[in-house]
């Protein structure tokens, strides 16, 4: 392409002297004689009334039938209309069939290629023009400049710049404004400013181009400065100026300036224009004034699809997906046809709500609108299905994608990671690299999230090494993910080292470290870090307080936890969420303050949800309180009748109280409702391979060796003082009860780990449920008799067993 333009440059200099815009006006004023009957022909009138490609194709046979295809008027009109409606191929067919081509036909055809845009064909056609001795006019160059839309096409844009100068258009206002716009679009805003500064005269369009260029290239303050300079030059900002500068105001969060611009727009009468009102909606929403944005939106006399999209996005970005869906539905009810942006906004809202049913409806709507082949829409669908826990449908959509972008891969990797399928997330990451798709920061954060879920220290160190080699370990998002990963892999000391090495920390970084201390039962360290955070510049958010209260709960720091709960609202104006209420019930209940916990529930200003009563029931199991357990269970069975876990928990409480008849009733109720207990599963990594064990299973290839070793191990820990808690098993003889206890998944995983590692190696086990009392007691003795450190991560926290003692202090 560059060589083509270089050739044209030579032709232009040799064959043509500098050509001014006045020459262009003379050229346009030239007319070829066309008989009046041609203008009056019905086909000419029909062509004028064409409003779509379909209309044009219906009229075309009439043009040929009446022998009008050789008339210059019809030739030019047909080329122009085909180009206008995006069918450059059909325009080219008409063009190529013309024997005696007027220059205007060439200009129209070039404009069509540039409009598509197809830069390669536009440049090739420009070369053909010059070879056919068609003299260039200023608009030819501006067409080419418009077709240069990104950094990859900057080289062509620069060559067109050179041709403009050589052709004598360096002082042409229209040409220089087009050049300025091209540099801005290609993210060379400094070059655009150079062009602007050299212009001998500037109009409002050139100023607006510069304002828009700065705004769209993330230089918001420069955009505002340009508007100030414009006013100093006594140029009155137009509605385009207002629309161009408002995104800069949004980026800086300068709502005061936004209000001033709003006032100016009202005084100038611009506020009635749909694009100005839409820009104001967007500005107020991004500056946090969602109610003002909605008032402007509701007051708009005319709304286009962009207005609706802005309002939907406003609610999504301000974490109000429910209202976003209300606006989307209203948009449909008013007959406004959604665009790809509308669909993506609605899918984002469904994802945040976890509303799979509505998500499927929007998926069906996207198919009806022929948007299901749009890769951005499909990426949004993948993300929605993943967040709604239907990752298999997401994978099916991903598999059908012809063009997979980096966003597509990232959505799938994160989707598997967040849905408890880390192995598949890592497999997709491997496939992505095999396809030579270069990972970005988001990719690595997603992979680290998967490894945090997998909780394998060796793999954690591997990905840490990968991000270091790619010089991303200093990135705040990647480093925060590393802190969280190491904490979830049981390496809390390493997590703190990464945290301390960070030069920049976001609120999520502090939250990850505080939560890490909490899940490891190091509540005092969590509180100390929280106090350090409060003294700094990073303001705690709702997640911070949730992490601190949970940390206090796991460490029995009741007074500190209650203090934090009150501080959240009184000191930081953060309204407690249902998660905060659940954490408070857990804090009080775990400490044995069951009366206080129940009173707390009764005094909640909102209706308690499942997590609140679930925390209460868990506390009742710890402290063997049947009375409160029955009250909590009754509410739970009303709110979530399909969860068998709460029935099992209640049965265990009855069992501990030797209320066998009640235990039987719960079991019968579960059978009647078709509810099942979630099977216990424990995982251990040996030599870079993760091995999974289910309670009582014999599927593992080494099962015979494992059970033989486990039998001997049980004898050793009994000699050290271990007594099996056979009360946990019902309806069988005592020796069978012991066999059933010994086949619990964590005991199998620990035995396999001991069998396949050398002395002194720490065993890391992960379990999908809460560790039972017998396994917790047995693991303490196993650590004592083997001299091994054993780290167990259950669904709630970490247990570090060493020398017969657990880090939780038997408080879990």
Automatic annotation (TrEMBL):
It comes from the Eukaryota. Its main location: plastid. GO terms for cellular component: chloroplast. GO terms for biological process: mRNA modification. This is DYW domain-containing protein. Residues 721-812 form the DYW domain. The lineage of its organism: Eukaryota, Viridiplantae, Streptophyta, Embryophyta, Tracheophyta. Belongs to the PPR family. PCMP-H subfamily. Keywords: Chloroplast, Plastid, Repeat, Transit peptide. PPR repeats lie at residues 102-136, 203-237, 304-338, 374-404, 405-439, 506-540. It comes from Brassica campestris.
């Amino acid at each position: 392409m560059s060589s083509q333009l270089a050739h044209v440059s030579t032709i232009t200099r040799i064959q043509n002297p500098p050509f001014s815009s006045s020459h262009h006006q003379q050229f346009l004023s030239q007319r070829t004689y066309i008989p009046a009957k041609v203008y009056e022909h019905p086909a000419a009138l029909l062509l004028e009334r064409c409003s779509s490609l379909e209309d044009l194709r219906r009229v075309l046979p009439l043009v040929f039938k009446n022998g009008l295809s050789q008339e210059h008027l019809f030739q030019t009109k047909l080329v122009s209309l085909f180009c206008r409606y995006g069918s450059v191929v059909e325009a080219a067919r008409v063009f190529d069939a013309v024997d005696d081509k007027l220059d205007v036909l060439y200009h129209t055809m070039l404009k069509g290629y540039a409009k598509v845009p197809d830069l390669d064909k536009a440049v090739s056609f420009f070369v053909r023009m010059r070879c056919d001795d068609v003299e260039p006019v200023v608009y030819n160059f501006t067409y080419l400049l418009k077709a240069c839309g990104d950094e990859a096409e900057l080289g062509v844009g620069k060559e067109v710049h050179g041709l403009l100068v050589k052709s004598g258009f360096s002082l042409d206002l229209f040409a220089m404004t087009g050049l300025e716009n091209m540099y801005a679009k290609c993210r060379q805003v400094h070059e655009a400013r150079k062009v602007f500064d050299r212009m001998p005269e500037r109009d409002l369009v050139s100023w607006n181009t510069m304002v828009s260029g700065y705004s769209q290239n993330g230089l918001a303050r420069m955009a505002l400065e340009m508007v100030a300079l414009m006013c100093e030059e006594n140029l009155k900002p137009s509605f385009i100026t207002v629309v161009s500068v408002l995104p800069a105001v949004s980026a800086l969060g300068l709502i005061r300036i936004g209000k001033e611009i709003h006032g100016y727009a009202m005084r100038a009468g611009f506020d009635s224009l749909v694009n100005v009102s839409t820009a104001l909606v967007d500005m107020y929403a991004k500056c946090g004034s969602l109610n003002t944005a909605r008032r402007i939106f509701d007051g708009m006399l005319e709304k286009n699809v962009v207005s609706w999209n802005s309002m939907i996005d406003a609610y999504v970005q301000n974490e109000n997906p429910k209202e976003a869906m209300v606006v989307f539905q209203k948009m449909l009810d008013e007959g406004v046809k959604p665009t790809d942006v509308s669909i993506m906004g609605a899918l984002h809202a469904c994802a945040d709500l976890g509303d799979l049913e509505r998500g499927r409806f929007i998926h069906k709507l996207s198919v009806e609108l022929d948007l299901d082949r749009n890769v951005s829409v499909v990426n949004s669908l993948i993300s929605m299905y993943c967040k709604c826990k239907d990752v298999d449908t997401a994978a099916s959509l991903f598999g059908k994608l012809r063009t997979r972008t980096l966003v597509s891969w990232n959505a799938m990797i994160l989707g598997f990671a967040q849905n408890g399928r880390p192995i598949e997330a890592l497999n997709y990451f491997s496939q992505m690299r095999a396809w030579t798709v270069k990972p970005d920061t988001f990719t690595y954060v997603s992979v680290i999230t998967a490894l945090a879920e997998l909780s394998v220290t060796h793999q954690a160190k591997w990905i840490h090494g990968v991000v270091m080699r790619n010089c991303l370990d200093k990135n705040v998002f990647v480093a925060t993910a590393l802190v969280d990963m190491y904490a979830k892999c049981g390496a809390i000391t390493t997590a703190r080292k990464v945290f301390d090495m960070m030069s920049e920390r976001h609120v999520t970084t502090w939250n990850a470290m505080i939560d890490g201390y909490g899940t490891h039962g190091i509540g005092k360290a969590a509180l100390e870090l929280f106090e350090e955070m409060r003294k700094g510049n990073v303001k705690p958010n709702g997640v911070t307080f949730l992490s601190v209260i949970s940390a206090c709960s796991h460490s029995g720091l009741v007074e500190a936890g209650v203090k934090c709960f009150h501080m959240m609202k009184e000191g930081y104006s953060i309204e407690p969420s249902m998660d905060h209420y659940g954490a408070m019930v857990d804090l009080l209940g775990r400490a044995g303050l069951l009366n206080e916990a129940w009173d707390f529930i009764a005094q909640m200003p909102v209706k308690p949800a499942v997590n609140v009563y679930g925390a209460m029931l868990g506390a009742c199991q710890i402290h063997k309180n049947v009375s409160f357990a029955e009250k909590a269970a009754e509410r739970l069975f009303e709110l979530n009748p399909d969860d068998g876990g709460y029935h099992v928990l209640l049965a265990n409480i009855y069992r501990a109280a030797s209320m066998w008849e009640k235990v039987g009733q719960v079991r019968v109720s579960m059978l009647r409702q078709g509810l099942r207990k979630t099977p216990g599963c424990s995982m251990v990594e040996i030599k870079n391979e993760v091995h999974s064990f289910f309670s009582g299973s014999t599927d593992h290839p080494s099962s015979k060796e494992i059970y033989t070793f486990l039998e001997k191990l049980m004898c050793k820990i009994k000699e050290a003082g271990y007594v099996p808690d056979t009360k946990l098993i019902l309806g069988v003889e005592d020796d069978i009860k012991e066999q059933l206890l010994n086949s619990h998944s964590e005991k199998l995983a620990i035995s396999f780990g001991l069998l396949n590692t050398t002395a002194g190696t720490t065993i890391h086990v992960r379990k999908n449920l809460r560790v039972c009392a017998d396994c917790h007691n047995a693991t303490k003795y196993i650590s004592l008799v083997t001299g091994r450190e054993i780290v167990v991560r259950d669904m709630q926290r970490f247990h570090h067993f060493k020398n017969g003692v657990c880090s939780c202090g038997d408080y879990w």
